[in-house]
Design goal:
Length: 192
């Protein structure tokens, strides 16, 4: 009998968990912008290990795709992803975030076409630590009390483990509404 993996960062396969944590950190950083963020559109999770969002701010439109793998991102694979991303978001600044190992031919590549490549090592402990730091930064920006680092890490793990909060379907938010959504989520996830 085959068991289906759970759909959260805690019980998800490692590649899924990695991109969920990275998505969480990036969305929380955007939420910190509050009213300076004009709006954000979150795309639903697909069958592939990726998460996409599109946002507008005073500098223009930005499309971001986050992917993770335990194997290796090849140059042709990344070029295909970039081509699809640029075709789907004409006129937007594009960023492709790769969590995992990249082929040596990509190690020094920071841009393909008009898409910026960001590469992060596949290190779940470091990613959860960064997520906890993002919670603390968000709390400061929202005027909320900051908790000890261990508690912030627990809050981050709880929120990153609930992908339905931010990627169950297409969702669009104004900047202030997106900030308030995350404020309420952070408050609700506080360990007591």
């Amino acid at each position: 009998m085959t068991m289906k993996p759970e759909s959260g960062a805690e019980g998800a396969p490692e590649p899924s968990r990695a991109f969920l944590i990275e998505a969480f950190v990036r969305l929380l950083t955007l939420a910190s912008l509050g009213s300076s963020l004009d709006g954000i559109l979150l795309e639903p999770l697909g069958a592939k290990d990726c998460f996409n969002y599109w946002c507008m701010d005073e500098t223009g439109a930005h499309a971001v795709e986050i992917r993770s793998t335990r194997s290796m991102f090849s140059k042709p694979q990344v070029e295909t992803i970039v081509a699809q991303m640029e075709a789907g978001h004409p006129g937007a600044d594009c960023t492709l975030v790769l969590v995992g190992t990249v082929h040596p031919r990509l190690e020094k590549t920071n841009m393909i076409g008009r898409t910026v490549l960001e590469k992060k090592p596949f290190d779940l402990s470091a990613m959860l630590e960064e997520a906890g730091q993002s919670i603390a930064a968000f709390r400061r920006s929202a005027g909320l009390p900051v908790s000890p680092a261990a508690e912030e890490a627990l809050v981050a793990q709880a929120l990153a483990g609930q992908p339905g909060l931010f990627c169950a379907g297409f969702r669009s938010y104004a900047g202030a509404a997106f900030h308030e959504l995350w404020r309420q989520g952070v408050l609700a996830a506080n360990p007591q």
